[in-house]
TrEMBL record:
It holds the Pfam family Ribosomal_L7Ae. Coiled coil: none annotated. Residues 7-95 form the Ribosomal protein eL8/eL30/eS12/Gadd45 domain. This is Ribosomal protein L7Ae/L30e/S12e/gadd45. Keywords: Ribonucleoprotein, Ribosomal protein. The lineage of its organism: Bacteria, Bacillati, Bacillota, Clostridia, Thermoanaerobacterales. It comes from Thermoanaerobacter kivui. One of its GO terms (cellular component) is ribosome.
Length: 107
């Protein structure tokens, strides 16, 4: 699977306590300005996408659409998750880089 690096970094972030998942938690942390990156699964509902993309744009927080609910959930040991918020600035940058590498054919 080409997105191993991205998903393993998500798993590390979870173990380190540096992410929140699910619409309620991510919404709450966004409003508290404690999120540095939002990850939306490709298969979230249009309403969920609209809500979080607007919240991120309004607060100037980067967001990416990546993977599926199932793959994101597996990476962090949950059943299903469509929205993840990264609460560590350094990990947010690493995840953004990992996602860019995948999209542009990097390692």
């Amino acid at each position: 699977m080409k997105n191993d690096r991205f998903h393993s970094i998500l798993g590390i972030s979870k173990k380190a306590g540096k992410l929140v998942s699910g619409t309620y938690s991510v919404d709450k942390y966004l409003k508290l300005k404690k999120v540095f990156l939002v990850i939306l699964a490709r298969d979230v509902s249009k309403n969920t996408y609209k809500k979080f993309s607007r919240m991120c744009e309004f607060r100037n927080i980067p967001y990416i659409v990546h993977s599926t609910k199932e793959l994101l959930a597996r990476a962090i040991g949950r059943e299903q998750v469509g929205v993840i918020g990264i609460t560590d600035e350094g990990l947010a940058k690493v995840l953004l880089d990992a996602a860019k590498e995948e999209n542009y054919g990097g390692e």
